[in-house]
Amino acid sequence: MATRTKAEVSDALLTRLGLLGHNKIRSAIDSGQTADIALAADDPVEQASDRAAAEFLVPERRLREVWPSVRNQPERFQEVARRFKVSEIVVARRALDTRLINKDSFLSFYRDYQSRERGAPRPARRGW
Length: 128
Hints:
Distance between the termini: 19 Å
Number of domains: 1
Number of strands: 0
Largest sheet: none
Mean pLDDT: 78
Helix content: 55-70%
Low-confidence stretches: none
């Protein structure tokens, strides 16, 4: 049995968390839901889970360190997503939650994201 390093375990966990979030958003888009899915949940347990996952994936302190260098770039969410190895929707939502962008900016990004996702070919699903 091969032993995994901490970095390998961390990468695997982040990949799975990212896939779960992406699948949740993809399901919402496919079912015709709007930006509501990307905004706060009503259930307090879901809200707490979302906050914990967001801090784990994109720690606020690190996001605030990176943001000034990308804030004015047209692809700022994609750039930060590459740095944190998460999806751009995670970064956009985190930027909203930490008040680095306002709700209008988030919704504008989200509408563009939805359009791109609807037009993108669907990747083959991996069995787990």
